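ok so for the tutorial part 2 we go from a plain amino acid sequence to predicted structure tokens. step 1 is just haveing the sequence, like this:
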Amino acid sequence: MPHREDTRHTDHATGPRGPSDSRPTTADGRAHALHARARELAALEQVLDHDEPGVPLVEVRGDPWMGKSALLAALGERARERGWTVASAAAGSVPEGLPFGVFADALDELLAPVGDQTVSWLSPHHLSWLAGIFPALSWHAPAVALPANPCEHHHALHAVRSLLGHLGSRDRLLLILDDMHLADEASVLLLQHLLRHPAPRVVLALAHRPRQDQQSLRILLGEAAAAGRSARLELSPLPDEQLGALLPRPLLPARLRSLLHASQGRPGLLRALALSAPWADDVPGGPHSPADPAMSLLREFRGLSPLGRTVAHAAAVLQEPFDTALLAEAARAGEDETRAGVDELVRRDILRPGATRGTFRFRDPLVRRTAHDTAGVAWQLGAHARAATALRDRAACPARVAWHLGHGGLTARDGEGVRILQEAARSVLWQRPDRAAGWLGATLDPRSDTGDPRQRLRLATALALSGDPAGSLAMFDGTLEKGSVAHPDAELWRARVLRLLGRHGEAADLLEKTAANLTPDAHELRARTTAALLETCLEAGERPRPALVEDAGAVTEPDPALRALLLALRALASGSDAAAAGGRAELVQRAARLADGLGDEPALRALDTLYWVARAESALGRDTAALGRLERALDLALRHRLRYVVPQLAVAAGRILLARGDTAAAGLYADHARRAAERMGSGFQAEAAGRLRARTDRPGPPGTARATAGRDAAQAEPEPGTAGAPEPVPDDRPADSSTGLSRLSEREREISVLVSKGRTNQQIARALALSPKTVETYLARVFKKLTLCSRAQLAALVGMEGGLAG
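step 2 — the prediction. this is what the tokens look like for a chain of 806 residues:
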């Protein structure tokens, strides 16, 4: 067995955790978030620990999702522990237009049990004004009124200050006011009065978003901080290592990195994104579950003018960043009106300026989604059509126009639109195959198998790349069988789809036929066909023909990805004898150098290359390099929705992690691979992931998981959808004598296993480098030894034995 490295791949430091690590659940997520803000919370607690607080105001400021509300809630808990009276409210939860709304909401419950003696010292006029602000006091007042002029306002503010002082006279009072950027003007005026005339033994603690502050609040808080009348706390983004610990469940490192990048250091946004649709590939649940965080964002749009709402809806159908001219077309508004709407949305921090001058984008993807979901469906269709027309007039790139045509802006008679969609699909086939499939599907009649064969074959490829092998195979079959001209490149993809579905025998036959029909000068296609044949054999756990391995060694294609693939496949197919070890190491080293030189764009088209190079590295015990390569491939695959290769990559990474004893991380990869395979409809690959998961659940005595998975990764238990051994691995367990299989020779058992997998005599001969006649002779011996009369009976016996190598 090759020596296996013990150093864990560094990317897993913020990714899957080991068995001893824990992840927060939803219930204790706040505690982990507060742990990340321990320094800030300690600074706030200092205000509580003074006999006489040094400042009447604690100000917590920061962007949305930064953790302000959680910090204030924790401050309230600490204050109660110290014997303080605590009252709290959020301005965003108060009905619009209610004067002093946030103060009334905060103190309502506290004032409910107040008796006559509490208000007896107030004048009837003051009591009437207080009753107009605080409904709980209305039954004490001779009348209920709101101050109507500046003089009455002044008296009312003094009355509120006296009331707060009375409430804090016995136990000090902490008044928590959240979302003050949404407070009404009267509440801001009251806050100003309390800052200039602090009530004794009362501390105000407020949170707000500086970008959304009304001017009066911005000026008031700035002056208070400058004069030393407030303790200002600015919440900054959290570092990635702290953010990653806040998620309720572990994620693949590739997915975690994407989430961390999108969350911009905001803990609340990270948790919200982890539950939302754009990241749902490895998170159970749909995009609009009851706990969907985007639903709480509806209040971001409350109070927008009709113009602002329309501009927000129009912005949500455009690709980011966008300019005001295009936005005006989509919104069907004048450009000056649109600019006014954009200014309103920027003030509300729904939009922010883009990196390019004159462009804008949404604050975060969840705000964008909420703006989109609150627009009417029919209105969206019209906006897409208007945007498509405007972009076509600008002669924009096909992909930008197709974004809108694909959302309903295409009519049946729009020949130019069809051309744009097809050109756009060609340009994004590897960057976003799901979009390419959607755009091509819109140009082809789903009720007919006619149409341009080139577009149909491109659609079949897009379906394969995006993880729909069944739909892809149907499209390939229906198109290729009608054509009189061979399509070798399409046949290679057709064979790839057959492999995704576990039909390796059919794939091998197709590839052999394709190779036989190639012209002598088709060097690249011949090299790719040779590579595909080797992949098919190794995935099925069959020994490639020596001639096929020699063909791979003779290829001198200039494409570095193809050369790296062939070198890795040759290394894996060269057997496991010690004499060939040096040659294999040299092949793998050359393949790794070529793979390392691939940029992201060429690597997108060579994910299979990265996979096989990683498998070859793992077979030599180079686990750190192999995991790094698999992680890079998974990162690209997940980012660009190249779902066809995800189960294979995840199982390979899981096997290596299991070999190194990291059962928790291996199980995470196995679960992800199974979900991805089930979405693809590939039971074959789902079974492979299930077997890996079963081994993580039953690791056995110490060292068992490492030894078993090490054998799998390096040489070989042949499993669907993963790199198998170039040579079948004999089973170390004694055969069950009750089945009679113990009487078979090693070669007879090899052939029996292949029969149980549905292989024909021709396929078995090709896999074992034998003649069909020799295979027939071996089978006759097997039938005679076991007293069988059919291949089905032999397959059943092998199945009872667990596949002989299982």
